[in-house]
Amino acid sequence: MDKYFVTIFCIGYIKFAPGTLGSICGVLTFFCFYNFFSVNPKYLFFLIFFIFIFGWYFVFTYVQKNKTHDPSEIIIDEFLGQIISLAPLLYLRNFKFNLDYFLELLIFSFLLFRFFDIIKPWPINIIDRSKSSLSIIMDDMVAGLFSAIIVFIYLLWLQ
Hints:
Elements: H1 2-6, H2 18-32, H3 34-39, H4 41-66, H5 76-86, H6 99-119, H7 124-129, H8 133-158
């Protein structure tokens, strides 16, 4: 069970850019459920909380079984971080934007999250150096938070 959860049904085992694939899964999930989440934003935050709690537990058990820290096939953290970075887009209903602009914002958020996830500026790099199952999840959550803050500021600037 833990293998399927942390690898998002074994997508993490694809050798080419598994973290990017995990982020793309997050973007596609957000896109598919955008109308639902924009009407009920609390459900997105429940989803984030659910994935965090179960992700932390399943990452812990997966790492214990495989005796390796932060293997590349664990992509639930990228999925979670990407969902967090997309959260400001829930409030687009207050703006009058078309689908093209929404897709541009999805791509902008995706690129920002991947930037912070790969570069790992302070304090993400400190969290990443820790050798715990919580740090595997938290570095991507903080990268998602950094991305969400920039997307939110950008949306406020457009208003």
